Amino acid sequence: MRGFGPPEELMDLTQELLHDHQVLRAKLDLLEQWLPHTHAAPFTLLNSIRTIARRLQQHTEREHAAIESLSSARHGQASPPISRLLHDHRDQDETLTILEELLAKGRACEADHVITYATHLIDSLRECIGLDPLYKQH
Fold first, then answer.
1. Which long-range contacts (CB under 8 A, 24 or more apart) does 22-25 make?
2. Tally of CA atoms within 13 A in the half-sphere of 55 that contains its CB
3. In the prediction, which pLDDT does 138 show?
4. What is the pTM of this model?
């Protein structure tokens, strides 16, 4: 994980995090559009889930770097919203894994389960993005 020093590095990281949120929102919108077609296009959904998983992993790494730096500035104390965010991302990772397993079955996948888990993922990620005060400013 990388830390950041000068304020311009913090601004760069902030911009990267905001960009991640934009990309994730677009990917979630696309996933949501494909959900009604789960039986017809399970591998399209699987590719979408894998893309979201990669993007979320990259975003989480950047987020952890920012949190570590901010926590060290606060003498190692993470705020409750930050702790909740880290917990939410672990939950989202688990949901992504479940979705990958379900969709790997192809047309034999249980569409109702896929839709339930995908809807939970979409809602959870959108809620995390909604907690972002920087997003609310833009």
1. 23/55, 24/52, 24/55, 24/56, 24/59, 24/125, 24/129, 25/126, 25/129
2. 20
3. 40
4. 0.79
